TrEMBL record:
Domain of life: Eukaryota
Protein name as annotated: peptidylprolyl isomerase
Chain segments carrying region Disordered: 1-20
Sequence ranges assigned to domain PPIase cyclophilin-type in this UniProt record: 210-404
Keywords: Isomerase, Rotamase, Thylakoid
Length: 407
């Protein structure tokens, strides 16, 4: 099945081409979905899956929440805060227990979190980045208050209120974890000094206007995106730089097929962002950080690197995963075009999909992701702004023109 689907895919694919053509590859993917699901695999839009990758087994406990993925991706190793995180994240699983039987395990998780916070608070405070200590202390105060409020939800046996209470507590956990990061964890290769780099994280607010009203009268909305420079400094840096320049303002959605939503093509003659210092399209090297590695891999996909079974720190696990589009057979051809994944389990099974390691993920939609499901070609990004983290954007240390002369 994998071979026949690969042939069908190869014949049909336009593969995230940097144009506006209708994606015939999506139909090919859907026609093959049943057989591929049985093999726990999916064909990406740019890479024909090798037999080894097609046999990759899905992970049974993969994380699919964007905020949880971002928490896990932080470069910290603090058992105390991770213990609290683990206890609170387990509540969503406890909620699956029918009726009121779930309240007991949830109550124990909340009590465990409170006990862990009380016993480790002084250690956590000492461990905060000195420059972020106030933020960290504020987060711990918020966490303590949210856990206290959680007791009221449980006493009222308000099962419907538990997800919101859990999400609030976990937001404070994430804020505390962010304050534990001390500096940037590695050196980006000097050869990429001509490109903007994000040495941390940035939050982007993106407003959309739909060309006509959709379900429930929706005519537009706002998405919040977190770009992760800790794990994709160049790819995230490129995006944040372009957002700060207003590049995506008034740009249309150029592909929306139920599988991805794509934008970022400025139109002919260029198919990407033209660097003012060179007059040429800025190209971004392929970038992916693997779990357990100290720094990202550059210039080749995980398949090309012989590591197709390894797991990226930023996987295609969440609805609204944001990645850099590129030409099918050119790993380093990305520029300004980006796409959001509309996760469908039959096409992109968590922990086994073949987009991982083949496209460079650099962020996730953390709020407003439901808008993606209603997007169509011709809808417009009316505004994109960096609302926090712009201070983490490092401008190129040398211009692309100067680097070209040196070469």
């Amino acid at each position: 099945m994998a071979t026949s689907c690969a042939m069908q895919h190869a014949a049909a694919t336009a593969s995230h081409r940097e144009d506006n053509a209708a994606p015939a590859w999506t139909t090919a993917l859907r026609n093959c979905a049943v057989g591929l699901a049985a093999a726990a695999t999916v064909l990406s839009s740019a890479v024909i899956a090798p037999p080894q990758a097609a046999a990759r087994a899905p992970s049974g406990d993969s994380v699919t929440n964007a905020r949880a993925l971002l928490r896990n991706a932080l470069p910290i190793n603090n058992k105390d805060i991770r213990e609290i995180q683990k206890a609170l994240e387990g509540i969503n699983e406890d909620l699956r227990i029918p009726g009121q039987k779930s309240l007991g395990p949830i109550s124990r998780a909340v009590n465990k979190s409170k006990a862990a916070l009380n016993s480790s608070r002084s250690k956590l405070t000492s461990a905060f980045n000195p420059d972020l200590k106030d933020d960290g202390v504020k987060a711990l105060d918020g966490l303590a208050a949210s856990l206290k409020n959680f007791d009221g939800v449980l006493e009222a046996k308000d099962k419907q209120g538990i997800p919101a209470a859990t999400a609030e507590a976990l937001r404070y956990v994430g804020d505390a974890e962010a304050a534990l990061v001390k500096g940037f964890p590695y050196e980006v290769p000097a050869e990429f000094a001509n490109l903007p780099q994000l040495k941390g994280r940035a939050t982007i607010k993106m407003d959309f206007k739909l060309k006509e009203k959709r379900e429930n009268g929706v005519s537009g909305g706002t998405m919040v995106i977190v770009a992760d420079g800790y794990n994709a400094p160049i790819t995230a840096g490129n995006f944040v730089d372009l957002v700060s320049k207003g590049f995506y303002n008034n740009m249309e959605v150029q592909r929306a097929d139920g599988f991805i939503v794509q934008t970022g093509n400025p139109g002919p003659p260029a198919e990407g962002y033209v660097d003012e210092s060179t007059g040429e399209v800025r190209r971004i090297p392929f970038e992916v950080k693997v779990e357990g590695d100290k720094e990202p891999i550059y210039g080749e996909t995980l398949e090309d690197n012989g590591r197709f079974n390894d797991t990226p720190v930023l996987p295609f696990n969440a609805f609204g995963t944001l990645a850099l589009a590129r030409a099918e057979f050119e790993a380093n051809s990305g520029s300004s075009q980006v796409f959001w994944l509309l996760k469908e389990s039959e096409l992109t099974p968590t922990g086994s999909n073949l987009l991982d390691g083949r496209y460079a993920v650099f962020g996730y939609v953390t709020d407003g992701e439901e808008l993606l499901a209603q997007m169509q070609v011709g809808d417009t990004i009316t505004s994109a702004k960096v609302v926090s983290g712009l201070d983490k954007l490092q401008a190129p240390k040398v211009t692309a023109k100067a680097q070209a002369k040196e070469a």
